[in-house]
Amino acid sequence: MSSRDRILGRVRRALADVADDDTPYEQAVGRAYLREHGERTAGQTVDLLAENLADYRALVHRCADEELPELLARLLAERGSRTVLVPPGLPPHWLAAAAATRVPDRATSTARDLDRVDSVLTGCAVAVAETGTLVLDGSPDQGRRRITLVPDHHICVVRVPGQVVPSVPGALGRLDPERPLTWISGPSATSDIELDRVEGVHGPRTLEVVLVSGG
């Protein structure tokens, strides 16, 4: 008997006295909790997102759609980035003004290859204002999960107000649970037993978020 069979056998024995319940999951699980806290306009929701992102030590920028290429070029230049990792579905005009060399998202790239890249640029699936969280779902403008975990510098573009929701329940309603979801609240950070903060251990040391309006 394999370990898998033993574990499944224990699960079956543990559930032997549990009555069958055909109630659909949507009805069996209560949803009486608040879906957001307070009432805000779309502009106030975006302001809250920016405030919470900054509280997590992300660098927040705002621009209009037509200003995006110049802003991205400036951010990469200020960082000294010579290479930028680009997902396959990233809008081409985003990097139209940038001098950095584009590195495609290749399935064959190793962690060492990704670590050599100076920056990565992606879009996002949704942003949560109340928690200052960005969610990536592996869509063409976001690429594979690993490209946002290995490079030290991540620039994420958020369309406002369309991609911003007030709360986590609102985000879950937009997301496909079968997709590879990455939830990002600020740059990667951890601390040891003495509470010394160390950044860049589990992901990018620097997270820059561009809130783009219009377009």
From TrEMBL:
**Protein name as it appears in the record:** Lactate utilization protein C
Tell me the domain of life: Bacteria
Q: Where is the signal peptide?
A: none
Domain named LUD: which ranges? 48-212
